[in-house]
Design brief:
By secondary structure, the protein is α/β, with parallel strands linked by helices. The chain is built from 14 helices and 17 strands.
């Protein structure tokens, strides 16, 4: 079949120009693997003057997205402007007009994915978003198709390269957080304003998407418990290492029983150093999926950047080109999420192991106070480090790892210790994943 798949691109920034460049550079390979030629007809961007590092004809570049949305020849709209609006309006218009949509927009999908997938189904077109999570890692198609025979029990992983780079450098060099962040910014791995990454919000959007697909629920970012990495200190990295762990920012979605509630959380986590996720360093991403009957599987690769994102975008375009029956979300339950339906497990009910760092005045009786507070809230100590590392104000830090305990109990015990007259600062709590 030689009828071309005609495409229009909205958004010609770093990722958009990277896609155009990859389409040109890999044209021979793409053409050999696709039953239909991929033709990029029109590019829409507010900036029509700046020359991009990509091969394109200036006549292709239009300032108005309507040049893509209302062109009857264009069959696929590629949305790469990011954010919620006007991307949401553009995607809706495209789907309502009977055009397929390919996007890398994680924020849009995390907030509106269920409704947009329903809209695609009603209009007999596809909404594809492999590039929205994990960059070049083919995790979306794995969940929708490759693992479709399985009941998912857990999806968890390192989903933000900026945070993973910072934590890797803190571990390798003993750098404080601010210095590791500055290094990441100097190298272009972190934005000038890194808040969205380091506070965990980027990972929360991606976790919401993965959890929705894995468990067939309409899970939104507001359903995700989120903690960032800004409070981690070199002493936590050191103690974690001595205990056989590394600290990673993980996005975690789990369900203990069929039809039960799902726990969805993002936070820095003690992960065994010898585990698959514990060994992932630098800006790389890694995602572990567990299901029945397959058991655990892992997906690893570059999580961001024009090259990795272009790889995922083109995989979606090739899926559209190869579906000779007419790609149609209405006939494929794997491509839909039931809008508004979800059961979320409250964070206070989480049961796991915990790492707690206390900052205390260097006095006798401190350990007895900590032990009594923990015991009074049904929290028992599994291991402890008492190097008596002194803080600049003369206080000492004491770090423990608990046996399995309930989140609400751990937090209550930590607050009790903080309220004592021997506390020299807030307790710092991390969860442990084994």
């Amino acid at each position: 079949m030689d009828t071309p798949l005609v495409m229009g691109l909205i958004g010609f920034g770093n990722i958009g120009s990277g896609l155009a460049r990859t389409l040109a550079e890999r044209e021979a390979e793409i053409r050999a693997r696709s039953p239909r030629p991929l033709v990029l007809k029109t590019i829409a961007d507010r900036d029509t003057e700046t020359r991009r590092d990509a091969p394109y004809d200036h006549a292709q570049l239009q300032s108005d997205a309507d040049a893509v949305l209302y062109d009857p020849e264009i069959q696929v709209v590629i949305e790469l402007i990011g954010g919620i609006e006007p991307a949401h309006a553009f995607v809706r218009k495209a789907l309502e007009s009977g055009k397929h949509v390919v996007t890398a927009n994680k924020a849009l999908l995390a907030e509106h994915g269920a409704e947009l997938l329903e809209l695609a189904a009603r209009n007999g077109v596809g909404l594809l978003f492999e590039a929205a999570v994990g960059g070049g890692i083919p995790i979306i198609r794995a969940l929708q198709q490759g693992l479709a025979a399985n009941e998912m029990t857990a999806v968890q992983g390192i989903l933000n390269g900026t945070c993973n780079y910072i934590l890797t450098r803190m571990s390798e060099r003993g750098l404080p957080f601010d210095e590791a962040l500055g290094e990441a910014q100097d190298l272009g791995y972190a934005e000038p304003d890194p808040t969205f990454d380091i506070e965990g919000h980027d990972t929360a959007h991606k976790t919401a998407i993965l959890a929705s697909l894995a468990f067939g629920m309409d899970i939104r970012p507001g359903d995700v418990f989120v903690e960032g990495i800004t409070r981690i200190q070199p002493v936590d990295i050191q103690y974690a290492r001595e205990l056989g762990f590394r600290i990673k920012l993980l996005g975690i979605a789990k369900r203990a029983e069929t039809g039960g509630p799902v726990e969805v959380r993002v936070h820095p986590t003690l992960t065994p150093a010898a585990s698959p996720l514990g060994g992932v360093g630098g800006v790389y991403n890694a995602i572990m999926v567990d299901g029945r009957p397959i058991g655990p599987t892992m997906y690893y690769g570059q999580g961001a950047g024009p090259a990795a994102t272009s790889s995922a975008l083109i995989s979606d375009l090739l899926a559209l080109a190869a579906d000779v029956g007419g790609f149609n979300a209405a006939r494929d339950a794997r491509l839909r999420i039931p809008s508004g339906q979800r059961r979320i497990k409250p964070m206070d009910e989480l049961r796991t192991h915990y790492y707690i760092r206390f900052t205390m005045a260097d006095r006798s009786g401190v350990m007895a106070l900590i032990g009594a507070a923990l015991a009074g809230h049904n929290v028992s100590i599994e291991s402890m480090i008492q190097h008596r590392t002194m803080t600049p104000d003369g206080a000492a830090t004491i770090s423990i790892v608990t046996h399995q305990a309930v989140e609400a109990d751990v937090q209550a015990a930590a607050r009790e210790v903080e309220a004592s007259n021997t506390s020299a600062g807030p307790a710092f709590v991390l969860r442990v994943e084994e």
